[in-house]
Every structure is written in structure tokens, then in C-alpha cells.
Amino acid sequence: MKSLLHSRNIFLSLLAVVLYAHSSCWACTLTSKNAAQAEEKDWWQTAQFYQIYPRSFQDSDGDGIGDLKGITSRLEYLKDIGVTAAWLSPIFKSPMVDFGYDIADFYEIQSEYGTMDDFRELIAKANALGIKIILDFVPNHSSDECEWFQKSLRRERGYEDYYVWHYGKLDADGKRIPPSNWLQAFRGSAWEWREERQQYYLHQFAVQQVDLNYRNPAVVEQMKRILRYWLDQGVAGFRVDAVPVLFEVETDENGQYPDLEVSGTTDDKDDRTYLKNNLVENRPETIDMVYQWRQVMDDYQRIHGGDTRVLLIETYAPPAYTMQMYGNRSVEGAHLPFNFNLITVLKQGVSATTVQEAVDEWMKNMPAKRTANWVIGNHDQRRAASRYGVQRTDAMNMLVLTLPGASVTYQGEELGMIDGEISWEDTVDPAACNSNKDIYENFTRDPSRTPFQWTAGTNAGFSTASKTWLPLAPQYQTLNVDVENSSARSHLKIYKSLVELRKSSKTLQNGSYKYKALAEDLFVLKRFLNGDDTIIYVANFGDKTVTVDLQSEFDATLPSTMTLKISSLDSTKTLGSDINPKSITLAAGEALILSSRTK
Ligand code: GLC
Ligand code: MG
Asked: What is the DSSP letter of 470?
């Protein structure tokens, strides 16, 4: 009996110990999880996004045009350069007036790019490699060849108000004229007359890109169906195109659209910037639509599980507007509204001060707990290396990959690809074709869309065709994956070491930041985290050699010895060597990444 009691007691005390241990263990996992949660980020918050322009990435069938099979065959390259998620510019059925940004069927793949099976294969292989695929969602307009538009032209039931139609107005001589003076992005009126309906339709872009009517709930619903359809195919989210122009001001009490005021910034009456576009861009309704799309993403994840499906949105607006795209206290919005400041602010010139201004404009306006992101190029801009100056290529890539938040790389930036030189005869971009031989270079986007450079061989390894859809850019014999991978030093190697550092460094992923433009055109950024290495980025954006004391001019707490981790291509300093932050000499364009960890 006694022994029984005893054993019972032992049992009870054992139980107590187990319970205690269990509960304390439970409590301890909870706390550490909380602590980890504060630090741990969702995949997209530290992601390295990569934009693929499918027409120019890799041609698999020798027609001179990139395609899906081509992309699939190059996924290992994306893996090799550390890409988390690749965003594909539009791959949907299109007459290619704006190279896919004029969609004729939102549910179909463009046949010159491949088939739905090819797409499934692409997704499957990407997923197997751990790469996410993001599609371009073009909600503002459809092609005029889209079935919806054909139905709307005939006023078929359900499609009457799919687009923005208007009778126009009469001028002083009783002649019919467009409803308003609005201009399209690619020069000329934003209104086009159609005999069939005896009405004008709105197009904020080319004549063949017809603006959908977002005041029609059926359109809103149709576009959400498209999102769900592609989510079902396994995509990880969307880059949303041309968000600023989604909504326009409504008609007034007389059913008329107001004219826009003249901006005074140009005399070119066909150029969109001739007018102040406040009534046709960045409207309040647009923000709400972005919130609705976010809900589609979140609902989808709730139902189907899996990783967060993301929304990256194209927005060019003042910060007060852009920041609302993130959401507010009660509603979530885009995960990442693209930050184009390093493009737009630096148009005034590239200097430490403009870089600081660009970074400030985002970081000082971004609401708490949101994630920043950094973009230096895309298919609408001149090549980063050409725009910033070739000697600053690495300085810019290094900046994008060391600033806090997500990074975005446009295909070829990692190689330092430069602008193509495209004659008027070879020009295909509607933004340029709608102008003329004398001024097209001010508008053309073709130079940044030339074939990706894989090798020094025929067509840079892009295609076996005798002619590619756009000619190759200069210097492809040296600026290509093959050559850069086999050189001891190259833009690509620098990019890869940046990515490696970023993946292994908690400081770069979660650390705090501090930055400053110093005299003589130096920009310095410090990333730091308790208990981890401090990382310094310092770049000379000017054109003369400068010596700086970072301890006295920037941060007195810097250690007196730091290790050189990464340097720009022309730098003569030895990687792995000791650098004293009290005295660093930087040549024009030179950029360095230092770590507080000594070997
Ligand atoms: C976006 C795209 C651009 C396209 C336009 C119309 O700005 O990035 O390439 O021409 O929308 O869809
Ligand atoms: Mg092809």
C-alpha cells in the first residue's frame, strides 16, 4: 500500500514535472516565436524580384521572339542569381500593338509565346527550383480585338457599358468633337470615334488599348475572375499595370467630361504632359480597387493555403497618394507599391544628394510596419547603366540590394546591359512610332527591350533566327552571362556576391538603417542589428577621387577596422582586406560594401 501510494506520488510528481516542463516549454516556444516573429519576415518582404520581358529573354523556336519554353530553359540561371520571384511582362493573347499590354484574351497565352501547357511546365519547373512566378495584370484596358470590345461596339447585352463611351460634343460650328481635351500616353487625343456606335471611346494609351469602365460592377467582377483564374494556375501574385489611370473623373450634371488645364511644361500639344492630368490619374476610387484586389489575394490564400500571394502595383504619384496604396489601419492594400524614386528623382541628375532625396522620399513617408522596395529600371525606361552612367552600374545595383526591403531587378541590369541603338526604321514601340523620325528618341522604349545577352555568339545566344524582333544592344560580346560568369570580376559576379551577402546576412534582412549624403558626392548607408555584423555601403557618385572619414562625418561608433566584402568593377582594392573607416579613398563611381566582421 505504502509503495503503491509512493508510486502514485511519484506518478503525480512526475506528471507535475511533465506538465510544468511542457507548459514552460510551451511558454518558451511562444516567447521565442514572438521574438522571432518580430524579426522573421514573410517571403516577399526581403525578396529579390526579377522582371522578365518574355519577348526578349530567350527564344526557343528560332522565330526571333522570346517565348515560354525559352524562359523555362533558363530558370536555372534565375536560381543561380538568387531570384525569389520572377515577374513576367504580359504573356496573354494580344495583337502586340503595345507588345502584350494590349490583351485580346486575358485567359489565353499568346501563341507565339507558347501554350497553356508550356505555361504549366514553366510554373512546375520554377516551383521545383523554389522560384515563384508573378504575372502582369493589365486591368485598365483591353485590346480593341478583345471579344468584350467587339460586343460593346454592337451594344450587346451585358457589354454596353464595358468601356467608357461618350457622344462627344458640338463645337461652335456645330461639328462633332471629342468629349474633352484629354490626351493619351502615346500622343494625341484619348478619344476615338466609332461609326458602329456613333460614339467615342476612351483610351489612355494607344488607340487599340480601350479603357475598361470600372464604374461597371460587371467589369470589376470580370477582372477579379482573371486574378483567380491565374492564381489557380499556381502563380504567386501579380504586378498590376498602369494603376494610376484606372479611374477618371465622372461626367458632370450635364453628362459632360471636364477639360484638363494646360500644364505649361511643354509646347508639344500632342504630348500628354501638355495637360495637367489630375482629373484622369490617381483618383480616390483607384485606391479602393487596389484594396479589393488585395482581398482577392488574401481570400485565395485563406481558402487554398500556401504562401502569401502578392500584389505589386505600378504607381507614379506623389507620396501622399502612393502610400495609401499600402492600405490603412483597417484595410490592407498592395504588398508593394513600386518605388520608382531612384528613377524619377534621379532624372534631375545622379548625385549623392539626389540619391538621398529619393531614399528619403520613400522612407520618410512610408507608414510604420510597411515594406520598402527599390527599382532602378524596367521595360519603360532607358537601361539603368546608360541612364546613371556606366561607371555607376555597380554602385546602383549595390544600393538596391542593401537598402531595407525588397529589391527589383530588370533583366540585364545584373549584367550592366546598356541601351540598344535603334534606328527609326527598326523602331516598333508605339510610344515612338506615334511621333516622327526627328523626335522618336525622346519617347522610344525599345532601347531597354533588346534581346537578353547570354553569350558572345550569334544573337547573343538569344535566338537562332536570322533576325531578332529588336536588334541586339552594343557590347553584347562582353556584357553577357557567359563572359561575365567566367571572368574573375564582372557586374554579374558583383551582383551574385551581393545576393549571397543579402541571403546570409540577418543585418541586411532585418536590420535598421541610417544613411547620409556627404560632401563631394559620397552616399553612405549603414545597416545594423543587435548582435550581428554592421554593413556599410559607400559610393562615390561624383567624377573625382575623394577621401572620407566615415567615423567623424557619418558615424562615430564605426569600428576602426572593417572588411571589404564587395567592390565595384573598377575598384583596385583587394577583397577581404581591412579598411579603416576613418580614411577611405574612393575613385569616381567606386562603391564598396564593408562588414564589421573581421576574418
Ligand atoms: C504600363 C506598362 C507599359 C504599357 C502601359 C500600358 O505603364 O509598363 O509598358 O505601355 O502600361 O499598358
Ligand atoms: Mg520564339
From this structure: S
Alpha-carbon dihedral sign for residues 82, 392, 55, 88 = positive
What is the Cα–Cα distance from 105 to 102, expressed in whole angstroms?
Answer: 9
**Closest-lying ligand to the alpha carbon of 446?**
1
User: Does residue 268 share a domain with residue 353?
Assistant: no
- Cα separation values, 492 from 1, 180, 347, 484, Å: 79, 50, 25, 6
CB-CB contact of 594 with 579 (8 Å): yes
Residue from 67, 144, 192, 241 carrying the catalytic annotation: 241
Verify whether residue 147 is a known catalytic residue. Answer: no
Mean pLDDT score, 56-63: 98
Which ligand 1 atom minimizes the distance to the CA of 102?
12
Q: Is residue 410 part of a domain?
A: yes
Please count the other Cβ atoms lying within 10 Å of the Cβ belonging to residue 493.
17
395 in the same domain as 475: yes
Final residue belonging to a domain, choices 457, 476, 491: 491
Question: Nine-digit cell at 485?
Answer: 560568369
User: Are 359 and 416 within one domain?
Assistant: yes
Is the pLDDT at 525 greater than 80, yes or no?
yes
**279 C-alpha to ligand 2 centroid (Å):** 41
Considering only CA atoms, which residue is closest to atom 9 of ligand 1?
380
Q: Establish whether residue 98 lines the binding site of ligand 1, counting it when its CB lies within 6 angstroms of any ligand atom.
A: yes
Output 114 or 4, whichever has higher pLDDT. Answer: 114
Q: Is the CB of 241 under 6 A from ligand 1?
A: yes
- Helix, strand, coil percentages (3-state) for the chain, rounded to 5, are 35, 20, 45
Q: Which ligand is nearest to the CA of 70?
A: 2
Ligand 2: centre distance to CA 51 (Å) = 18
pLDDT digits (tens, 9 = 90+) for 175-192: 999 999 999 999 999 999
pLDDT bin (cut points 50, 70, 90) of residue 482 is: very high
Identify the three-state secondary structure at position 110: coil
> Can you tell me the mean pLDDT for 197-225?
98
Grid cell for residue 141: 484596358
Whether residue 405 is predicted with pLDDT greater than 90 in this model: the reply is yes
Q: Ligand 2: distance of its center to the CA of 29 in Å?
A: 53
- Position 16 in a domain: yes
Residue 242 Cα to ligand 1 middle (Å): 6
Ligand 1 neighbourhood includes 242 CB (under 6 angstroms): yes
| Cα diameter, the chain | 116
Reading the block at residue 193, the C-alpha cell is 470615334
Look at ligand 1, atom 5, and give the residue with the nearest C-alpha: 242
Q: Quick check: is 170 in a domain?
A: yes
CB of 138 shorter than 6 A to ligand 1: yes
61: CA distance to ligand 2 center in Å? 5
Q: What is the pLDDT of residue 579?
A: 97
Kindly name the residue from 144, 248, 314, 394 that is annotated as catalytic: 314
314 classed as catalytic: yes
**Is residue 67 helix, strand or coil?**
coil
10 shares a domain with 20: yes
Residue 205 beta carbon below 6 angstroms from any ligand 1 atom: yes
Q: What is the model's pTM?
A: 0.93
| pLDDT tens figures, 421-443 | 999 999 999 999 999 999 999 99
The answer, yes or no, to whether residue 6 has pLDDT greater than 80, is no
pLDDT digits (tens, 9 = 90+) for 528-574: 999 999 999 999 999 999 999 999 999 999 999 999 999 999 999 99
**Protein residue with its CA nearest to atom 12 in ligand 1:** 101
